[in-house]
Write a sequence for this structure.
């Protein structure tokens, strides 16, 4: 019923866009008659009211799916979980009715709409917001089950096991949403970077970081029956940050505290967050006596302890991002002075913690559960350590001199070495025990323990991203020059010769295109064209950059301006950017492996911790 | 004379310590001095990006003007501090893309590291209390005469290898 009504509402808004019903204020604000059908559809989530409708619609789909999925299981938890989800849905529907109605009518129907911001008319407009919302909304499910577990007193692993895939789903889409956003910024904003530490970017990073900590931490509860309270805290925080992310994205709160007070949506979201904090943590506090660990820690040198360090760093980075994001508001409230907290702050503060995180990522999988011995440490750490140590002088010799870059690459090498070692040992053991060939043994190893090896593949993707980020952060080269046709500029091994400009009109815009022949070490390899586009309803032009991508580097050309027959260019050589996107694909592959149903998983978990299937039903206090 | 294993363990731990230590080394900035300063200033067009990011590409020319002004001031012989001071004088504290490291703004810089350090201390104390509790539990348990040790070791090894 709820899904049906939410679907009808969504269809009605899409229909209003497609039929160009400009009497609807939202349609008039975010579309015009010249927009093609693709972006007309995507305009649905271009503004606040439509985004909230999208949130509500996705949540209603998830709730319906959850009911169908759990017809015959989790009968005690499901009603409460659905109740929590419906309460959240009611909030979003209420916001739409009372504060941000996407169907608000104008007193008259204008002949045409204002159109969509040209920078939003990119494929990223389709993938970035939708994946982010799938992530934000997806975290409602594990949160709802956690609350259901607290309400019912079924505080064992049932709520974690029943939402493991939902959590992975939400975590994956939030991560992909961030990557899609980075890729979109890279190709569309045209400044040569992919992450500007914009508050909206930070908003989607925070729940992903805490969600990552949660995904690791629940392993300890599943294996050892420990960290029950901490896992509750993490999933509550993740969901709160998802709501906070939606608030930041759509309320304009960070422009100023005064802007915030003018928005009707902002106070409602703050009220929801306050209510959720009081309710969730109040319930958790009430259940504390029933959330005691089943086991104690055997040793400080154990995977459990290393996962706690991992959690500390992930939550620490999330806190640093949160603190930097809200500090302008704090400064304005305390001192009455507006300040900016931008990339230099975030890079300086999060850089060391991120780097430590990478190192810990290499350590965690190598330490044994319960108690690691000296033999265990030697056996597992020696080769990756030596590999990382050998890497440093090699990198130094080929010109990597920045200490931070060296540390980042060495840490990445250490993690790669540790992952490789895990795979090599596993494949060899399988080869010895079953006689399988090495390639077959590799696939059967991964398929035989999907959560574990899927996780390692995800780690590999993260490391590829880290390498791409480190290389592009420290070794980007740029040059700016103004050229006449036939003149050239040089950057690294490239020579770019300006061929000339041409101007033409399309249905929606006037275009000025500047083309350059690209020579590498004297040999012509390409012709690239960057454009300036003037949309009819926009005062300023937008720039479409030209990018030539190889595995080693991107040649990135920005057509900055022109006067007469002279054109100004900013050209960058960004090293290893493509590895960030490849890392995303590898993460996708790892997530699919980890997500894939595994018939042996349940059996294995039961073997690891006898009694795991028994749920302790705690009487209501 | 330490044996090979001990030496290897010490070397391994030393390398680990080195890696962790390197995380404390401040980041080096790449690019020209103009780009460096432009990357430290917020573009005043309201885009929220730095002047370096906004300049030259996005839908405003404010960033371009700021970058050009930085370049001109360098040519006039002004220092990095003088240029930063000029922009702060013009636009106030919102000009730098990061809070100044003085007064109330210091809390912006200190708080994240303080939080991680405090969190680390809490984690350590919790771990120690768990360990102590585990030790007391083990001591309280009666000695098992049946030789289950080898089975336990084997299970541990197999969990390590296949778990």
């Amino acid at each position: 019923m709820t899904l049906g009504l939410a679907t009808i509402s969504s269809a009605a808004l899409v229909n209003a866009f497609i039929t160009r019903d400009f009497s609807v204020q939202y349609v008039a604000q975010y579309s015009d008659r010249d927009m093609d059908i693709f972006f007309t559809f995507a305009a649905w989530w271009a503004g606040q009211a439509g985004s909230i409708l999208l949130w509500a619609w996705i949540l209603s789909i998830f709730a319906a799916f959850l009911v169908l999925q759990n017809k015959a299981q989790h009968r005690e938890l499901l009603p409460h979980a659905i109740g929590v989800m419906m309460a959240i849905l009611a909030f979003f529907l209420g916001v739409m009715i009372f504060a941000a109605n996407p169907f608000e009518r104008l007193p008259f129907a204008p002949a045409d709409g204002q159109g969509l911001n040209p920078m939003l008319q990119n494929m990223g407009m389709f993938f970035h917001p939708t994946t982010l919302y799938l992530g934000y909304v997806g975290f409602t499910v594990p949160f709802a089950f956690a609350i259901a577990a607290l309400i019912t007193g079924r505080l064992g692993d049932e709520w974690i096991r029943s939402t493991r895939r939902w959590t992975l789903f939400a975590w994956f889409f939030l991560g992909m949403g961030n990557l899609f956003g980075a890729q979109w910024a890279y190709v569309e904003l045209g400044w040569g970077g992919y992450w500007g530490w914009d508050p909206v970017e930070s908003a989607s990073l925070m729940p992903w970081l805490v969600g990552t900590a949660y995904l690791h931490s629940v392993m300890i509860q599943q294996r050892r029956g420990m960290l029950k309270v901490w896992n509750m805290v993490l999933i509550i925080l993740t969901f709160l940050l998802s709501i906070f992310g939606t608030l930041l994205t759509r309320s304009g709160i960070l422009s100023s505290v005064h802007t915030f007070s003018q928005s009707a949506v902002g106070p409602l979201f703050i009220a929801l967050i306050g209510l959720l904090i009081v309710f969730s943590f109040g319930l958790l506090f009430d259940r504390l006596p029933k959330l005691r660990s089943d086991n104690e820690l055997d040793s400080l040198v154990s995977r459990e302890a290393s996962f706690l360090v991992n959690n500390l760093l992930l939550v620490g980075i999330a806190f640093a991002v949160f603190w930097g994001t809200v500090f302008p508001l704090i400064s304005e409230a305390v001192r009455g002075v507006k300040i900016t907290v931008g990339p230099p702050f975030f890079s300086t503060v999060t850089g060391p913690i991120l780097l430590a995180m990478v190192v810990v990522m290499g350590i965690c999988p190598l330490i044994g559960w319960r108690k690691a011995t000296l033999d265990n440490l030697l056996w597992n750490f020696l080769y990756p350590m030596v590999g990382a140590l050998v890497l440093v002088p090699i990198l130094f010799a080929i010109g990597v001199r920045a200490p931070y870059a060296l540390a980042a690459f060495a840490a990445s090498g250490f993690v790669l070495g540790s992952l490789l070692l895990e795979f090599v040992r596993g494949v060899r053991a399988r080869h010895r025990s079953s006689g399988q060939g090495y390639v077959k043994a590799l696939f059967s190893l991964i398929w035989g323990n999907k959560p574990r090896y899927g996780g390692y593949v995800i780690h590999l993707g993260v490391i590829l991203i880290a390498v791409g980020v480190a290389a592009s952060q420290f070794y980007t080269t740029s040059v700016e020059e103004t050229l006449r046709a036939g003149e050239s500029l040089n950057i690294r091994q490239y020579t770019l010769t300006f061929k000339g400009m041409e101007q033409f009109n399309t249905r929606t815009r006037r275009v000025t295109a500047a083309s350059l022949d690209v020579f590498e070490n004297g040999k012509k390899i390409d012709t690239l064209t960057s454009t300036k586009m003037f949309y009819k309803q926009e005062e300023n032009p937008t720039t479409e950059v030209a990018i030539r991508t190889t595995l080693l580097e991107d040649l990135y050309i920005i057509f900055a301006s022109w006067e007469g027959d002279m054109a100004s260019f900013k050209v960058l050589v960004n090293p290893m950017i493509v590895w960030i996107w490849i890392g995303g694909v590898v993460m996708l592959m790892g997530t699919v492996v980890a997500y894939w149903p595994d018939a042996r998983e349940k059996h294995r978990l039961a073997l690891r911790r006898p009694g795991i299937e028994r749920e302790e039903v705690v009487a209501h206090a | 004379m330490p044996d090979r294993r001990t030496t290897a363990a010490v070397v391994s731990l030393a390398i680990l310590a080195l890696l962790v230590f390197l995380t404390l080394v401040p980041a080096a900035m790449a690019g020209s001095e103009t780009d460096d300063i432009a990357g430290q200033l917020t573009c005043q067009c309201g885009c929220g990006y730095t002047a370096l990011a906004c300049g030259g590409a996005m839908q405003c020319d404010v960033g371009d003007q700021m970058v050009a002004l930085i370049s001109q001031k360098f040519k006039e012989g002004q220092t990095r501090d003088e240029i930063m001071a000029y922009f702060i004088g013009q636009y106030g504290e919102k000009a730098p893309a990061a809070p100044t490291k003085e007064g109330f703004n210091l809390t912006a810089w200190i708080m994240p590291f303080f939080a991680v350090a405090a969190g680390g201390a809490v984690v350590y104390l919790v771990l120690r209390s768990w360990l102590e509790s585990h030790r007391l539990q083990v001591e309280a348990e009666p000695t098992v005469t049946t030789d289950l040790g080898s089975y336990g070791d084997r299970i541990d090894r197999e969990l390590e290898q296949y778990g």
